[in-house]
Task: structure prediction
Amino acid sequence: MASKTPRKPRKAAARTPSANTTSANPIVLALAAVAVVFVVGLGAKFLIGRDAPEAPRTVAEAPKPAPTPAVAPPPVPKPVPPTPAIVPPPPTVAEPPQVVTETEPNESSEEPAVQTAKPAPLPPQKPEVAMLPPPIAPVQPPPGTPAWKRNAVPSHPSSDKPAIAIVIDDMGVDRKRSNRAAALPAPLTLAWLPYAHDLSAQARAARAAGHELLLHLPMEPSGHADPGPDALLVSLGKAEILRRAKAAMDSYDGFVGVNNHMGSRFTADHASMALVLPEIAKRGLLWLDSRTTAKSAGLSIAQELRMPYAGRDVFLDNEMTVPAVRAQLAKTEQVARHQGYAIAIGHPHDATIEALASWLPEVQKRGFVLVPVSAVVRAHHAGG
Result:
């Protein structure tokens, strides 16, 4: 019995918690909570790691809607049709195409646009082209018309105004000054040396600019000046004089006549001139005597042959200064008032060109009419 009594207090001690065990319980619980959180976190990571490969699948499915933006481009071409509606403005672009055609060869990228623009303007252009032929139609000279009339620049001088013809000699060798002279207001009469380079091309350009043409035939001077290659010399035989004269007159075509370059000795020799002038007359050309000497036989022989002729009245530039040339132009006006016409001869010098550039635009205002030399010959010295 004594052994049974001590057991009871042990059971009571176990049931009644002590202060140490009661304080230990919160710590254990906290540790357990931390453990649980840690385990849960590991589980979440594990779960996320397992789900990660599935995420790309959903992302892989996302690109499928991307084709839908590709379907959007079809509407983009739809706005393009409105741009063709801009084509109607060609009426306002009708003038530019004519200018654009000039730049087409250098701008191949614009050719299609230009080609589409051209069809519209073409219809209005056709009637305009159809209207051009009537004024352009040239009046053909009747058969047998002599060369001096056939190649003459058309001119209708007024009967109540004195006529002035300006002749520029020595053309063609000094290309720069010759071009400047040919650029002066027309009609001038330009006398071209037969040994000039590109003679035919230079002369054609001058004729296209409205100027009349002469052959400036080199002849022997009295002094020691050089008249140029194949000049006509008194010392030559008759056959050589004719050969050189014919070769010079064959150097180019389209001129109305011949005048002498230098030639104070040759033109004074009656026998020599009697060989050359008949050849000029036979070709239907006129003779303009430059009168480099008062003893020239050219005018008297031309009268005997009853061929068209004329003689110089004034030299413009014996003194090559602008004031001197202007003084000679004033003298030319005096001669024209006195006899109804005047022929003045100058050269492609800077002073001559400058003086003429300011005088020519005012010639009509001063009461004169500018004419080619053929007009003077036709009105006053058309022999035969």
The domain at 160-380 is CATH 3.20.20.370 (TIM Barrel). The chain is about 45% helix and 10% strand. Strands lie at 163-171, 189-192, 212-219, 257-262, 286-289, 309-311, 314-315, 341-346, 369-370. The longest helix spans residues 19-51.
